[in-house]
Design goal:
single chain; alpha+beta; 5-stranded mixed beta sheet; two-stranded antiparallel sheet
Length: about 230
């Protein structure tokens, strides 16, 4: 950073004088600084496997405590991001995966009654999307009822009755990111879906990213995190 500031100062000096040797030296310095900046940035890059590799055991342990069967699939572990971003996103993904196992995927008997396989599917997928990285956490569980989100947000005073009435199902899902919201009717041992989602969104936005949710009752939920 200090080199870049120094380069800018020298560039301003070059604009005030006409010295070919100085101009050539400044151009050469600029190329060296650009190469150095690139190498420094590359040295900070780490693969997502750095955090992904701890999730299978975590999901397995949570599922066992909940007496559920969950098959976790992970894709895109070789995609690289800045170490600071990976560290920050790592804890966010922990919360999202916990929520998916605890509240997204149903118990085997409930799934069987709904005509689903006893084993729930949970997918953690990372891929490039233009110049950005997209991370998706998808489950084939119960989904999030928009009506429940409206009711809980209204009970907590997070929205007014008028706002609840005019909020469509797509926008209602975003209520899960409001501070203090939850879809949990009871307090389970692991987590409550919605509790902490405000903190997750805040963390992701702090590193320049965004988060979105799509869900269909009885089909499942997909949380999408977009990172620069």
């Amino acid at each position: 950073e200090e080199l870049l500031i120094g380069q800018m100062r020298i560039e301003k000096v070059r604009e005030t004088v006409d010295i070919p040797e100085l101009s050539a030296a400044v151009d050469s310095l600029g190329r060296v600084i650009t190469d150095l900046q690139y190498n420094v940035m590359q040295s900070r890059m780490v693969p997502l496997a750095y955090v992904f590799e701890r999730y299978p055991r975590m999901v397995r342990d949570i599922a066992k405590k909940q007496a559920k069967e969950v098959d976790l699939k992970m894709e895109g572990m070789d995609i690289e991001l800045d170490r600071t971003v990976v560290d920050e996103i790592g804890e966010c993904l922990v919360h999202l995966l916990r929520n998916a196992v605890d509240h997204g995927i149903e118990a085997p008997d409930v799934r069987a009654a709904a005509g689903k396989p006893a084993e729930g599917r949970l997918t953690l997928r990372a891929h490039h999307d233009g110049g950005q990285v997209r991370i998706e956490i998808s489950d084939d569980g119960a989904g999030i009822p928009p009506a429940t989100l409206r009711r809980r947000a209204l009970e907590r005073g997070l929205i007014t009755a008028e706002q609840a009435a005019r909020t469509n199902d797509r926008d209602a899902l975003k209520l899960i990111f409001l501070s203090g919201d939850s879809t949990g009717e009871t307090v389970p041992n692991v987590s409550r879906r919605g509790v902490g989602m405000h903190a997750v969104r805040t963390s992701i936005e702090r590193i320049g990213g965004s988060i979105d949710v799509q869900s269909t009752v009885g089909v499942g939920t997909t949380i999408t995190v977009q990172l620069l």
